[in-house]
Amino acid sequence: MGGNFVIAGGSKGIGLEIVNQLVPSADRIDVFSRSQGDLADHEKVFRHDMDFTGTDLNFSDIPEVVNGVVYCPGTINLRSFRALKPADFRADFEVNLVGAVKFLQGCLPSLKKGSMEKRASVVMFSTVAVAQGLSMHASVAAAKGAVEGLTRSLAAEWAPKIRVNCIAPALTDTPLASRFFSSPENREAMALKYPLGRTGVPADLASTARFLLSSDSSWMTGQVLAVDGGMSTLRK
Ligand SMILES: NC(=O)c1ccc[n+]([C@@H]2O[C@H](COP(=O)([O-])OP(=O)(O)OC[C@H]3O[C@@H](n4cnc5c(N)ncnc54)[C@H](OP(=O)(O)O)[C@@H]3O)[C@@H](O)[C@H]2O)c1
Predict the structure, then answer these.
(1) 224 CB less than 6 Å from ligand 1?
(2) What integer is the mean pLDDT of 210-236?
(3) Which of 43, 85, 107, 134 has the fewest Cβ atoms nearer than 10 Å?
(4) Class of 4-174+202-225 per CATH?
């Protein structure tokens, strides 16, 4: 595939697996996260400290030309609507939506240069809880609904130069979701909810992100792809 990629949240979970899948073919990968996490040292990978809830974020370290960017930071703040405070909604909105806005505005000049090579792709992350109403998900579903709206708006605004797509996962075994996998019984109970008989692993989502970053998806933009074991559309 070649090219330069910037992964927000490439130190753990799905973002880390995206980095690992890109490493063999990418020219350079820049990762922004608050910690090193599980990211291994590699000559092609450059990690920069960043908290996307902060202000005045500095993207000057990314290459002049970028061919693909992915925004991974997200939340799973599950509580009844009654228990959720306005501050919870603001916090989820800050990480999921406003952080993505800061990231994309920071990367845009380099992405525009990537688009001159006809290769500029953006991948965002939503959740199954937008397409399917799930109780206790009001705050994260509202924030991710905004991410899906942003995806389609930017896909229109930036076409035909920059493609913008989004992936909507269901429960996936990452640090963010570790509390749902705390025992073999929990794991088994979660798997039974899925038409495909299992919950997700980071590679399920990373391979979809890799496809969306590559020219194999060059006629796709403005899409929200459900990668969710069938949860959003099927009932067994
Ligand atoms: N896992 C699931 O079951 C699931 C289900 C539906 C949707 N999703 C969505 O999929 C995406 C990826 O989820 P994941 O499970 O891979 O999450 P994860 O395990 O928490 O990994 C998130 C990554 O983002 C970074 N990050 C988090 N907050 C940040 C911040 N404020 N500033 C900078 N970096 C930050 C983390 O690194 P540091 O901690 O080092 O900063 C980490 O590298 C998220 O948008 C999530 O909402 C996940």
Answers:
(1) no
(2) 96
(3) 43
(4) alpha beta
Domain residue ranges of the chain, discontinuous segments joined by + = 4-174+202-225
Residue nearest (by alpha carbon) to ligand 1 atom 45: 74
Among 109, 125, 12, 124, which residue's Cα sits nearest to residue 66? 109
Mean pLDDT of 180-204: 95
Enumerate helices (H) and strands (E) in the chain, giving the number of each: 7, 7
52 lines ligand 1 (CB under 6 A): yes
Distance linking the first and last C-alpha atoms of the chain: 39
- The pLDDT tens digits of the residues spanning 28-55 come to 999 999 999 999 999 999 999 999 999 9
Per-residue pLDDT of 115-173, as tens digits, reads: 988 789 999 999 999 999 999 999 999 999 999 999 999 999 999 999 999 999 999 99
Ligand 1 atom closest to residue 172's alpha carbon, by position in its atom list: 3
pTM of the model: 0.98
Coil/strand/helix, residue 227: strand
- In short, whether 229's Cβ falls inside 6 Å of ligand 1 is no
Q: Do 162 and 112 form a contact (C-beta atoms < 8 A)?
A: yes
Cα–ligand 1 centroid distance for 185 (angstroms): 24
Q: Which three-class secondary structure state does DSSP give residue 234?
A: coil
The token pair at 149 is: 């709206």
Q: What is the pLDDT of residues 94-118, one digit of tens each?
A: 999 999 999 999 999 999 999 988 7
Q: Which atom of ligand 1 is nearest to the CA of 125?
A: 45
Question: Do residues 72 and 125 make contact, with C-beta atoms less than 8 angstroms apart?
Answer: yes
